[in-house]
Amino acid sequence: MKFRFTGTGDSAQVPCFGCDCPVCVRARVIAGARRGPCSAEVEVDGHLYLLDAGRMDLADRCQRHRPDAILLTHYHPDHVQGLFHLRWGCGKSIPVYGPKDPQGCADLYRHPGVLDFRAPLKPFKLLSLASLTVTPVPLNHSKPTLGYCLDDGEGRLAYLTDTCGLPGATERFLREWQPDVVVLDCGYPSRVTEPRNHNTPAHAVQIIERLAVPMAYLTHIGHELDRELHEGACALPANVQVAKDGEELSL
After folding, report:
1. pLDDT digits (tens, 9 = 90+) for 34-74
2. What's the CATH class of domain 2-248?
């Protein structure tokens, strides 16, 4: 399994519009310091699967390699906005899976174009794709949201964004499932004392420690947390890293 972070930012992204903090100024000059909308892709035996679809250059990426399926965590715009362009394309339809959300986002359901929206996924019910088994798990967010536990028979990765903490059933499942890698939401800086919808570094580390996972990556990074990390004001355990756009993992 080859896993690639195609975006590691929050809805404001990095650089954030109108912000002149050092991190945002740096990101306007250095492309590698940018953070696009939180998303990823998985490649197994030549099959490509997208996790979320918030990047506005999504159609260009799909032109290079048409995905076998798209897995949506939820229907907030920063996780689906790339679909509004992609759907008007041509050729074979692309299966799209996601949580049960009757509202979805705008008119995607009514005008899907080449997108083939499949029946909503049920938490903990296996989805078998070519060379990949996917287990959806519920997360804590303001819209119905799923994380995805990916298993190709050789490695296991849990992709968990957007969430504030984890539901008890999800945490119990993960402790039993024993992922090799966890990718976890961490949208807020440390100074936030009452987070909603996203984790702070302290909350994320606590989850990772309870899961006893060998390696974890933080994603959905806001520009305020990015500044905190850049200034060295946030210490993380050795087995926890902050993901970067374009970073690849091989399991």
Report:
1. 999 999 999 999 999 999 999 999 999 999 999 999 999 99
2. alpha beta
CB 67 within 8 A of CB 94: yes
Q: How many CA atoms lie within 13 A of 100 on its CB side?
A: 5
* Token pair recorded at residue 121: 């996924």
Which run of H or of E encompasses 225? Answer: helix 223-230
Residue bearing tokens 């903490």: 165
* pTM over 0.70, yes/no: yes
User: Residue holding tokens 């993380």?
Assistant: 236
Instruction: Give Cβ neighbours of residue 169 (< 8 Å, ≥ 6 apart).
Output: 123, 124, 137, 138
What token pair was written down for 145?
């949201």
Radius of gyration of the chain (CA): 17
Give the C-alpha distances (Å, rounded to integers) separating 129 from 68, 81, 156, 182, 232: 9, 24, 15, 20, 41
Q: Indicate the Cα dihedral angle 76, 181, 68, 169, nearest 10°.
A: -60
Token pair belonging to 103: 């509202």
Q: How far apart are the first and last CA of the chain?
A: 5
Quote the strand ranges of the chain, DSSP E.
2-7, 39-44, 47-51, 69-71, 94-97, 115-117, 127-129, 132-138, 146-151, 156-160, 181-185, 215-219, 240-242, 248-250
